[in-house]
Amino acid sequence: MRNLTGRLAAVFTAAIAVAMTSGGPAGAQEDTVTIEGLVWLDRNSNGVVDAPEPGLAKARGVRVYDATTKLHIKDVGTDENGRYKAEGLPNVPLAIYSHNADVYLSTTKSTFNPVNGGGTFDFGIRGAYLPVPCWVDSDGNRSYDGEPPPPGGCPLRITGGPGVDRPVDPPNAVANITHFADVPSGEYTVTAGTLFDQGLALIEPTKQNHVDWVTYTKKITVNVGQSEPWIEAGYFAAEGDMAYTARVEPAEDGYRIGDEVDVVVPITNKGDVPERAEFVLGEPFDEQAEKLSVSDNVESDGSNLYTLKDRLLPGATAEVRFKLRIKTAFSMVNVVGTHINELPDADFGNNVVKFPVRVDDGTTTQPTTPVETTTTTTAAPTTTTTTTAPAVVQVAGGSGLASTGAVPLPLLAIGGLLVGGGALTFLAARRRRRA
Ligand SMILES: [Ca+2]
Ligand SMILES: [Ca+2]
Ligand SMILES: [Ca+2]
Description:
With 435 residues, this protein is mostly beta strands.
């Protein structure tokens, strides 16, 4: 018995010894390798890390594969300095690929294969360099002649591609012009900020690479490592002038409570740049006419202040249409454009429209409707044969101008003082919001 016990103990001890040499945690550590390195923006493409060339921070780094089986092991990203490090990789022949070669130009080897025992592998990449002349056109020729940028800098931004969203880079020691540096390939939108509060607006695009003066955007395609396209954003001292008229449809000498009418507000841009126009429908008030619908080319915050959704080109006219049902008598249509649309309005004289409208106020005695009785011979019902005569409306001193957009000069002159209801309040509130 003692002999058997001794033999079992010897076997058990041997088993532990085998397990310790072939399996345990100490063995696993010896069988792994580490790779590390730098991914940097090699702007001069010389394959060397020069002083001003930054690492590609917090981005994609490398992809690691088993070089024999082709199986993907892991992807490793970069830190804030553009460095990557992968520990605990199996000690097998590895294939290491740049994870940026699809959207950047590689200026060094982009693949190391096979790699045994780990090591350090750096990857140089180069993005596109997009010059962006951005200037205030001081000589009026709508071209860039080395003029300085707007006083507050160039409000440009690039968005798109693989998660790019950043402002334009100012001129620096390397590039003496505003630019987007290190841009990976992809589809982008370049957006120019509006500078209306400085009285500046984009020039009319005359070249394919100008940022559009209506949308303040430009869509571009960037190819791997190119030095184009360049984008131009020229501003100039613009003058805004929106002109407003109004009419009522259908054109009638007078209207009755319950009638449905359209108040139409044509707005013409007499300024020299596209702008979104704003105005207040001062009268009729909501208490006087129910708004059944408003054309979809304007937006409103729920007040009686309306803003064109799209910028109106110089010389163009947009019509805003209100469908109204008359609720109570009113005597004026009153439309007032704002002092400041996107730019200050250079001529407020064409912003106020005010004209009289005749509406039956309900006190007029309706004329006794002459029922056609030509065939009446008995007490046959007549109610269904009633013919309603044209309404006779109460004219409160109006001159029947409802059907025209013309504004009598005296009324125009006082219009600015008699802005209906809360128009001035809304105008003031709007300016404060913008401030
Ligand atoms: Ca370099
Ligand atoms: Ca110029
Ligand atoms: Ca105006």
